[in-house]
Amino acid sequence: MGTWLDETLTWGNALIFFLWGVILLAIVLGFVTYAIYFERKVIGWMQLRIGPNRVGPLGLLQTVADILKLLIKEDTIPRKADRMLFILAPALAYVPAFAVLAVIPYTQDLYFADINVGLLYYVALSGISTIAIVIGGWSSNNKYALLGGMRSAAQMISYEVPLVISVVGVVMMTGSLNLRIIGEQQGNWFWEWNFLPQIIGFVVFIIAAVSELNRTPFDLPEAESELVAGYHVEYSGFRFAFFMLTEYVYVYAIAALTTVLFLGGWHAPAPFLDFVPGIIWFLLKFSCIVFFLFWLRATMPRIRVDQLMGFGWKVLLPLAILNVFITALYLELFIKG
Amino acid sequence: MIRTEELLLNVGPQHPSTHGVFRIIVKLDGEVITEAIPVMGYLHRGTEKLAEDLNFTQIIPYTDRMDYVSAMTNNYVLCHAVETMMGLEIPERAEFMRLIVMELQRVASHLVWWGTYLLDIGAMSPFLYAFRDREMIIDFFNELCGARLTYNYMRVGGVKWDAPEGWLDKVRDFVPYMEKKLDEYNNLVSGNEIFLARIKGIGQYDAQTAIDYGLSGANLRCTGVDWDLRRAEPYSLYNRFEFDVPLGKTGDCYDRYLIRLEETRQSLRILKQALEQIPSSGEVMGKVPRVIRPPAGEVYVRIESPRGEIGCHIISKGKAEPYRLKFRRPSFVNLQILPKLLVGETMTNLITILGGIDIVVGEVDA
């Protein structure tokens, strides 16, 4: 991939880039389809149920059937909704979710965009989805949707701060915002990966990430027992599917980002395991994180909205800043000197 | 200058967490409730009025449909009232059968509450665990009387069916199983930090307020008032068994939660004793006249249902039908404190408090 990016842009190259984009889209859609299946199965097993098992062998086509159903459903727009914004919101939510995937490196050689400020790009773009959710909640002209949208805005803004600050430690250790370099610089033994020296940052990052994803225990924007469905209560058909899609694409993105930032990316946990290709290691770590996110949903109750804010600003943010401070101290005393 | 105004939000009657068709109109200032107006009656079927045209045996199935999560206790309160009026003798085995099904029902009802309450709070799994165990109790009832929810099991003077062969042994095996599961549930949920943060100190009131509002059941005992009709005014055979009445101190949702869990354990304790003492054979139906005509007069009896004090007031003119029948429904009475508790709370706490009161809309509206 890297060599392609260095060449001058011709029509042929542009076509190849376009094809790679389509391939990535297909992979992501495939991931979302089976992540939903996997989530339902995992939660089902934890809850003494079987999960989907009717459509296709082992229920493997269940999500496909669900998506098909959403596609052929009537697309309703409430009469009093703000039409333009209502239509815009799902697309606005999805585009940044997909765009952030460009900077994620899967192995040394397999990546789509090698940007020097890759991490910054990720954080900046993912913030746009918040706006989409607020727009979706506002334009529906529904009180529950509005409450959900406002909650979501408050939550995502207050958790983006600790999320960003928690990765500063990693950036300081690596000296780069380029995700490929961050991945590459982590050592060949698993204790040389960032998650151990950056343990505070890692924990803060995971918690803030779960909150960014609006997943249990931070699933307040769509708390079904209070707000029925939250910001997407008025959406149906494929517009609703787009919001769902966004959510799962972010699961993909966060899992991949955590792998690269903290879990050594494509490195094997020990040098003698190097014969296994890097992409396999990447996928393994990635899957573990996805599983962890789903596992939480079967385990945790939901936190309250005021507690969520307090936790974000009073606990996570100071911890993240402390982590930056400790990292700086360590670098100053032991590395530089 | 920003113009702000209160948001009028209509919660229910179609809302996932109002436990049926209950509706609350709340005025929200941001997320804080400034006023809450409960609206009831969406499930009103006029049980009490209908009863005036029915004879007493025909009324029993109607009581099933009031508190459909705890139909056995409703059966009992009506039969008990009529029996008190007529001074009927109940065979011992019948009384034991009644007590066993009532305590099983209490366990089942508290399990439903436990599961749905945690579901309200956002924890999904406990709901399914609770329903697995409740299912076993429902299977027992199914075997006993052929219905899973509306049993129509008791009759004036006894019970309709004796326990089938091996039924009591199955229940005997169930009790230790359930005790083990209760410990497991306690370990799973009761100490969870998020859960504690959600319910500790929420929906708090003191003993005097509780008495003023006429609360009963766990809603009263959470303030420390020792009032359980099974011990305060023993009916059926409750004076033969040893059990504790769990009490709270602070009167918040967490105390109510702990009390209900402990009550389940105490019910199992009663069950264990009852299953040992039940006579191995005997009549299950007393000597009852063919047409049940209570003598003219009035009677009010009350028993402890899983939700609190359920009472039955019958005015009879000596006919086969009651002249007037009135049920004191604990869900309805307990709900009265809701508007007071909600003021100043957030939307999230609305669900926590409403769930903590433990209402069954069938009983609220009757």
**Low-confidence segments of chain B, ≥5 residues, pLDDT <50?**
none
Share of residues in strands of chain B: 5-15%
The CATH class of chain B, by name, is Mainly Alpha
Q: What about the largest sheet of chain B?
A: 3 strands, antiparallel
Radius of gyration of chain A: 21 Å
Question: CATH homologous superfamily of chain B - what is it?
Answer: Cytochrome-c3 Hydrogenase, chain B
Number of strands of chain B: 8
Count of separate structural domains of chain B: 1
Mean pLDDT of chain B: 90
Structural class of chain B: alpha+beta
The shape of chain A is globular
Q: What is the H/E string of chain B?
A: EEEHHHHHEEHHHHHHEEEHHHH
Count of beta strands of chain A: 0
How is the secondary structure organized here?
The complex is a heterodimer of chains A (about 325) and B (about 375).
Chain A: H1 2-6, H2 11-46, H3 62-72, H4 83-99, H5 118-126, H6 128-139, H7 143-174, H8 179-185, H9 199-212, H10 224-227, H11 237-262, H12 278-299, H13 305-336
Helix pairs in contact in A: 2-11, 2-12, 3-11, 4-6, 4-11, 6-7, 7-9, 7-13, 8-11, 9-13, 11-12
Chain B: E1 7-11, E2 23-29, E3 32-39, H1 47-51, H2 56-64, H3 71-86, H4 92-121, H5 125-145, E4 154-155, E5 158-159, H6 167-190, H7 193-199, H8 207-212, H9 218-221, H10 229-232, H11 253-277, E6 297-305, E7 308-316, E8 324-328, H12 330-335, H13 338-342, H14 347-357, H15 361-365
Antiparallel strand pairs in B: 1-2, 2-3, 4-5, 6-7, 7-8
Catalytic activity (chain B): a quinone + NADH + 5 H(+)(in) = a quinol + NAD(+) + 4 H(+)(out)
Protein name (chain B): NADH-quinone oxidoreductase subunit D
EC number (chain B): 7.1.1.-
